[in-house]
């Protein structure tokens, strides 16, 4: 394996790593030899993902029950991750939820706070915990935020969700600037329409699916596997000079 693809000895946290896009990225990291700590709320799903990842590479895999919107749970999960792995090299803040859909003028502040608690607070808390550890270790680190095309395009009918994803992009750029001098790189991945549990209802809508496939030149929904190599690249040594960037992975959906 080329050195820039080899993550042997690299310790990475993937929040929401037990399902969907996060699991796709965790699979890539495990296959590249990394030690992976997955954080998610559903302990059963965490354990199933852990067992699967253990079969993919030689690295150590751990799973931690964590709601990333809860400060104490993030603190505890970081402590447990460090106790198990001894250090931290990267954190991918992928955990996220879709917002309540409906006309913007009918959505409530509670609707906004509900989606922001995970999609914004969760990223803030996870990144803060990682940065503290990176600074203590003193040899840099890599942060990756999973935003969304909705963070640039907005999301009609799901405005609150788009707003949280836009906030993550601003945070990513600010962090890239604030912590770059410490060797801490921050980048974002922006998925287009990806077939996961989150988009189950949309996948079941034939008219919508036809629209997605017609607009995306690759002519299919994305899959979690489409994110594996991006995760390996962004956390690894090959991306040593990549900082403050957003990577859209959408089959070309957004080029029009
Ligand atoms: P899934 O619903 O398949 O997975 C979401 C993951 O996040 C699960 O592992 C879930 O685990 C975890 N999660 C949710 N809430 C929390 C929480 N409070 N604390 C910890 N973990 C949590 O969704 P996707 O894989 O599709 O989404 C992953 C990311 O990609 C999200 O940030 C989403 O916004 C983004 N995205 C997805 C797109 C798509 O088309 N699918 C498009 C653009 C962006 P558990 O329930 O066990 O906590």
UniProtKB/TrEMBL annotation:
Domain of life, source organism: Bacteria
Write out the entry's keywords from A to Z.
Oxidoreductase
The record's annotation in InterPro entries points to:
NAD(P)-bd_dom_sf, Sc_DH/Rdtase_CS, SDR_fam
Q: Which PANTHER family match?
A: 3-OXOACYL-[ACYL-CARRIER-PROTEIN] REDUCTASE, SHORT-CHAIN DEHYDROGENASES/REDUCTASES FAMILY MEMBER
Family statement: Belongs to the short-chain dehydrogenases/reductases (SDR) family.
This chain belongs to which protein, by name? Answer: SDR family oxidoreductase
């Amino acid at each position: 394996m080329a050195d820039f693809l080899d993550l042997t000895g690299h310790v990475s946290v993937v929040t929401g790593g037990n399902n969907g896009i996060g699991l796709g990225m965790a699979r890539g990291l495990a296959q590249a030899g990394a030690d992976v700590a997955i954080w998610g709320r559903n302990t059963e799903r965490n354990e199933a993902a852990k067992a699967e990842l253990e079969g993919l590479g030689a690295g150590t895999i751990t799973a931690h029950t964590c709601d990333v919107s809860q400060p104490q749970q993030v603190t505890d999960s970081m402590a447990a991750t460090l106790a198990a792995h001894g250090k931290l090299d990267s954190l991918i803040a992928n955990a996220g939820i879709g917002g309540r859909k409906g006309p913007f003028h009918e959505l409530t502040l509670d609707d906004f706070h509900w989606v922001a608690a995970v999609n914004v607070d969760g990223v803030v808390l996870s990144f803060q915990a990682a940065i503290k550890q990176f600074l203590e270790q003193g040899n840099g680190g890599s942060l990756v935020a999973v935003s969304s095309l909705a963070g640039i395009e907005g999301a009609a009918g799901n405005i609150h969700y788009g707003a949280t994803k836009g906030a993550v992009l601003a945070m990513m750029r600010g962090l890239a600037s604030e912590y770059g001098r410490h060797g801490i790189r921050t980048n974002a991945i922006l998925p287009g329409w990806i077939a996961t549990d989150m988009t189950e209802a949309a996948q079941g809508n034939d008219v919508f699916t036809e629209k997605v496939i017609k607009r995306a030149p690759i002519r299919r929904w994305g899959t979690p596997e489409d994110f594996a190599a991006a995760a390996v690249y962004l956390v690894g040594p090959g991306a040593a000079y990549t900082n403050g960037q957003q990577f859209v992975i959408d089959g070309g959906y957004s080029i029009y």
